Amino acid sequence: MRTFSNNEGLVSERREHIAKSVAPLFVRKGYGQTSIREIAKACDMSMGHLYYYIGGKEDVLQIMMDFDLHFYVNLVKKIISSSRSLSPTEALVKVIDQFFRATDAAGDFTLFFYQETKNLQPDARKIIMDRERSLVMEFEKLLGRGCTAGEFQIDNIPLVANNIVITGHMWALRRWMLRKICTLDDYIQNQTEYLLKSIAPGGKKGLAFNKGLLREPLNK
Amino acid sequence: MRTFSNNEGLVSERREHIAKSVAPLFVRKGYGQTSIREIAKACDMSMGHLYYYIGGKEDVLQIMMDFDLHFYVNLVKKIISSSRSLSPTEALVKVIDQFFRATDAAGDFTLFFYQETKNLQPDARKIIMDRERSLVMEFEKLLGRGCTAGEFQIDNIPLVANNIVITGHMWALRRWMLRKICTLDDYIQNQTEYLLKSIAPGGKKGLAFNKGLLREPLNK
Amino acid sequence: MRTFSNNEGLVSERREHIAKSVAPLFVRKGYGQTSIREIAKACDMSMGHLYYYIGGKEDVLQIMMDFDLHFYVNLVKKIISSSRSLSPTEALVKVIDQFFRATDAAGDFTLFFYQETKNLQPDARKIIMDRERSLVMEFEKLLGRGCTAGEFQIDNIPLVANNIVITGHMWALRRWMLRKICTLDDYIQNQTEYLLKSIAPGGKKGLAFNKGLLREPLNK
Amino acid sequence: MRTFSNNEGLVSERREHIAKSVAPLFVRKGYGQTSIREIAKACDMSMGHLYYYIGGKEDVLQIMMDFDLHFYVNLVKKIISSSRSLSPTEALVKVIDQFFRATDAAGDFTLFFYQETKNLQPDARKIIMDRERSLVMEFEKLLGRGCTAGEFQIDNIPLVANNIVITGHMWALRRWMLRKICTLDDYIQNQTEYLLKSIAPGGKKGLAFNKGLLREPLNK
DNA sequence: CATGAATGAGGTTTCATTCAT
DNA sequence: TATGAATGAAACCTCATTCAT
User: Residue C17 domain-assigned?
Assistant: First the structure.
């Protein structure tokens, strides 16, 4: 990311300022509909000065996404590590509860990520995706602990970890439909139940049966 | 939606042509990054002629989304009605299989919906969302049948229906991550297993237990 | 003016239809802001068919102006000839009254002429101006009759004729200001008085005095 | 009127520049037939930069009209105040002479006003009309002084003031016809004579007589 | 005679980016 | 460091006119 300043500390300080200033603007108007003039005004900088710290408009998007995702991932890490003393099941329930509430609080920001990632350059996109991957990995660790402890039985841990994350995001992505169905409290409770049932140990028979169902009639 | 033609048949024919022509372009470049000139060229029309059938650029987005979603919803309806003779469980397994494969085939189109719906005018957005809602309702009907038959046990049918749809979409939205975890076949099989386990009858005790877990430690 | 039809009678019939149909549209929206599509719709014709009788958009303006001015001039001629049996002063008073009322009824049409004549081609403009000139000439004849009869004393008859016409137009051109000053009845009465005083016989002395005033202090 | 600059001094300086640069162009081609590209070129600015000081094409019209009318009204004010030491009759004669010559010098600009005011937004139109009104009021003051001094006898001062202004405008509006009748010098002299006769004191009898004429034969 | 689908040049406006100060 | 005036390419959209039917 091009810069005219060599003062690294200043640059990262300014970029944090940019990320914070621009977030509500981007979330409200969308990246494409926000002009550099508006960005500069939100950052309380002149346009020329803004370009002192960024190389182009896209950089503002990347800076903002990276910063917010960093914050979000750290939050999840804190939540997970703070429940390390609990049993895996208890920890999972608590983490899901807090993760879903945090996602709800992040609000349209989650939706923003799904919408605007496409506007990033490939290398910037990779950075963002790596952060997203690390978010999932936090859940993988927790699920792994549960499997080791015999509380969960999971074939494909990364997939279930993804399911949890997506289920959190879903509340943001489809709020317009889900709000008509239930409250956030209901949502958390119900989804947690479904998850726990689906990863509860035992039930091998059912699985074998299902696998049969799945394979036979669909063969052509 | 404004038109200069009164020939309704012609208008809807051209609009279908527009919807089909523009879809790959939109999916590849994004709505905002596609210019009217490109749209016209993709439709093999002059720009002026394009405006003979639409009122503005936004209309192209709406026409394309409406058409594709219509197609998609009809497909799901067909899938579901074709499995009416099967038992609910068998039907669900089959429908999920086909629905997930259809969503995979629709490719980036699913992602496109999540990204670009924001660019629609409120009334156009409502139309699109109603179609989306009707998609979910197809699954609700199927789940309802399973509950009646005693094969499923579901508190919140609309929520589970949403889960199924989202799980399908997720394969498109997060392909970049999921592809590293498993194949589509694995994905379908695993997600189906998780779903069936989570809605399997019985297990009341577990639920009560979970509810306790959920509520007690989180109360402040 | 180009035509595709050779049937002269039909052409002039259609052009009259066009003139009548388009007048309210032009007066309301202005020539430049009215599209051929709207013109065709107002004429109850297709665009293509309209071009069967005209050579271009400008022709519509010319046709409409020519027709309406023709109508207007004829009206004034009728008014003037119908008062031929009255004394010149009586006739003038009556003609002015009726002319001003007719101009008021023509409404924004008068303003339209001043605004849009510039959009005519030079030769079309000449035709319109000739009609306007013939309007003035009708008043010149009347004034000439009065001078011969000794009821008026006018140095420059064409100028006074112009003054009368302009004073009529002024009511249309500056209605927004004049309406605050007086009613149409007041306007007619006052302007008639001023006119009659200014062309009353006698008062040579005053004129000589004025001429002196006019010439001496302004010479440099 | 929207601006991107907060530097008020610069903005009004540039707008004056725009007003001056664009006037001959507008007068020659008309507002509607002048493109933004041409306006920018005439102002020696890029199109984008032009939009730095205006909110839209209409603003250019308003800026130009406001500026020129301001100049014109100030001119008349100066003329009138410079003749304050003269007798009302002398002053009127002198002011008319100078006002008519100024209007003649302003050339097609007067016609432009009558033609293009319709293209202004209502609020902009109001501003222009207020300036026009203040022009008339200058003449009202002068006429009022003459009435007080007993040199004029006028029922409706605002109307006569309007007549004077219109008679000046008329030379511009109908130059094509008036030029064939007389020179500007003749025009000024004749119109001044007519005016002075029409507002000369005395002649009550004639008025009473005329009023009779006016009312009786036209009643139905 | 009559239609209206089709054209494409040209209109107004926006905006990321630069550079003299 | 900091400013914001200036650029110009490119965006969306309109419309007079033509021509195959």
Answer: no
